[in-house]
Amino acid sequence: MPPAIENPYEERQTLLLERIIKNVDLLNEALMEMNRSFADINNHNQDITIVAEMWNGYHRNVDFNLQNMESNNTASNHHAM
């Protein structure tokens, strides 16, 4: 059986793999922190979303009532003639 041929680059490859693994771990931690930050931002923005939905409902009601007032005024002006 011939002796095993050693890879002259094995040590360098091992060091590079260790660096890659360490950097991927750091990246994963950073992404998890970013996800937590996004969740916090979404929680804070939820109140703003609720107010915006309420405002849109108020705006639709005002528009509806103004249109009805205009229609009623036009109708009553025609009846008054």
Automatic annotation (TrEMBL):
Alphabetical UniProt keywords: Cell cycle, Cell division, Centromere, Chromosome, Cytoplasm, Cytoskeleton, Kinetochore, Microtubule, Mitosis, Nucleus
GO biological process, any: cell division
Record-linked InterPro entries: DASH_Dad4 (IPR013959)
Keyword Secreted annotated: no
Record's subcellular location: Chromosome, Centromere, Kinetochore; Cytoplasm, Cytoskeleton, Spindle; Nucleus
Pfam family name, one: DASH_Dad4
Major subcellular site: nucleus
GO CC terms of this entry: DASH complex; microtubule; mitotic spindle
Highest rank taxon of the organism: Eukaryota
ATP-binding recorded as keyword: no
Family the UniProt entry places it in: Belongs to the DASH complex DAD4 family.
Protein name: DASH complex subunit DAD4
